[in-house]
Structure formats: structure tokens, C-alpha cells
Amino acid sequence: MERRRIVDIRFLGTAIAVDFIVVPVVAFGPSRFVACDRALLLGAPLVLLAPCVDYMIVFTGLAGGARERLLAATPLLMLLQIVLLPIYLLLFAGPNTSR
């Protein structure tokens, strides 16, 4: 039973889909309000796309969610976030923003 908890594909798939598909789509809208300022165009998506993991775990627990499973998935989610965040910033801000 413990192994099933660690490797819960449905839960992990949902967490990945929300973190890396739904959140970027939702974060794209507010980032357009600051598109005229290059610094804000990098900063706003960075804040919106990289949520604090400790807050996410605490609020999940307060809401009665599966805090333990989320805690177990945190290393994978953080690794994916490290890999995908530069790609999202490039998509949100464009290739010329870092110059």
C-alpha cells in the first residue's frame, strides 16, 4: 500500500498538468499588463510560474488535500520547474528581452 502512495500516476499526472499547463495559461494573461516594461515582463511570470512549494503544501493541507502525496511529489515538481521555467520565460517575454 505504501508503494501505491509513492507511485500514484493519476495524482502525479494531475499535479504536473496543473503546474505546467494550467498555471502557465492562467499566468500569461496578467503578464500582458506589464508587457511594456522589460524588467516586469521577466519578473511577473517568474513570480507567477514559480510558486513557493512550502505554501503550496501548507495550503493543500489546510484545504484537506493530499499533503503527504504532494510532499512526495515535490522533488519531481521542483526539477520540472527548474527545467521548464526558462522555456516559459522565453515564451512569455520573447527572445530579445534578456538583452
Overall average residue pLDDT: 83
Helix content: over 70%
| Helix and strand composition category | mainly alpha
Strand content: under 5%
**Number of helices in the DSSP assignment:** 5
Q: For the CA atoms, what is the radius of gyration?
A: 15 Å
Shape: elongated
Distance between the termini: 52 Å
Low-confidence sequence ranges: none
Number of strands: 0
Question: Strand-and-helix sequence, N→C?
Answer: HHHHH
- Seen as an oligomer or otherwise, the chain set is single chain
Largest sheet: none
List keywords for this structure.
99 residues, elongated
Description:
The termini are far apart. The model has no long low-confidence stretch (mean pLDDT 83). The chain is 78% helix and 0% strand. The radius of gyration is 15 Å and the shape is elongated. Helix 2 packs parallel to helix 5, helix 3 runs antiparallel to helix 5 and helix 4 crosses helix 5 (67-93). It is mostly helical. It contains five helices and no strands.
List the helices and strands and how they pair.
Elements: H1 2-6, H2 9-31, H3 38-49, H4 53-62, H5 67-93
Helix pairs in contact: 2-3, 2-5, 3-5, 4-5
Give a nutshell description of this structure:
This protein is mainly α. 78% of the residues lie in helices and 0% in strands.
